[in-house]
Design goal:
mainly alpha, two-stranded antiparallel sheet
């Protein structure tokens, strides 16, 4: 909008995710959780989510995002053990970079 583009909101629209092959399904307390399989996707997902919620002051959603991150970390620990450590580090770095508002290409293995 700042650059002169028009925006439209269509309340009846639906978004369907078709790329589910890049996600792993975990079950935690009877609930199914879909999580990106690759660390770099986890990094950017958490970084961008936290950045957006901070930028637009959605503090309730920001707190929810942190709890969701803990839930994902718990799933990774339970299902993958030490093999999941790189994914946990990616989530942690993504959350920290989101809080620091550090955008751009930042993922490091």
């Amino acid at each position: 909008k700042k650059n002169g583009y028009s925006l439209f909101w269509i309340p009846a629209s639906e978004c369907i995710e078709k790329r589910t092959d890049s996600k792993i399904k975990y079950t935690l307390f009877g609930r199914q959780i879909k999580v990106y399989a690759q660390g770099f996707r986890l990094y950017y997902a958490f970084r961008n989510t936290i950045y957006i919620y901070l930028k637009y002051r959605h503090f309730r959603k920001l707190i929810y995002a942190f709890f969701y991150g803990l839930e994902v970390i718990l799933c990774i620990i339970l299902y993958e053990g030490l093999r999941g450590l790189p994914k946990i580090k990616a989530i942690q770095r993504g959350a920290i970079d989101g809080l620091r508002r550090k955008l751009g290409i930042n993922f490091k293995k």
